[in-house]
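Exam revision sheet. Question 4 asks you to relate a sequence to its structure. Input first:
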Amino acid sequence: MAYNKADKRFLKQLGSRIRGLRENKGWSQEELSFECSLDRTYIGSVERGERNIAVINLRKIADALGISLAELFRDE
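Answer key, C-alpha cells:
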C-alpha cells in the first residue's frame, strides 16, 4: 500500500517518538523487543517509520515502556 506524505510523516514521527522513549530508558532495540515480545527488526522498521503498526503492537510497546497509549502519542 502506498502512503501519502502526511501518512509517511505521521509514521516517521511515531517511530521517532518510540525511539526517543526507548533511548530515555537506556534500552537497545533488542531490549525493547524482548520486553514487548516483538522482533528486533520489526522494532527497527517501526522506529524508521516503515511500518503501519497494529494497535495491539502499539499497546505492547507502550506497556513495555511503562506508559499509556495516550502518552505514546503525546507530542513532545
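Marking note for examiners. The chain has a mean pLDDT of 95.
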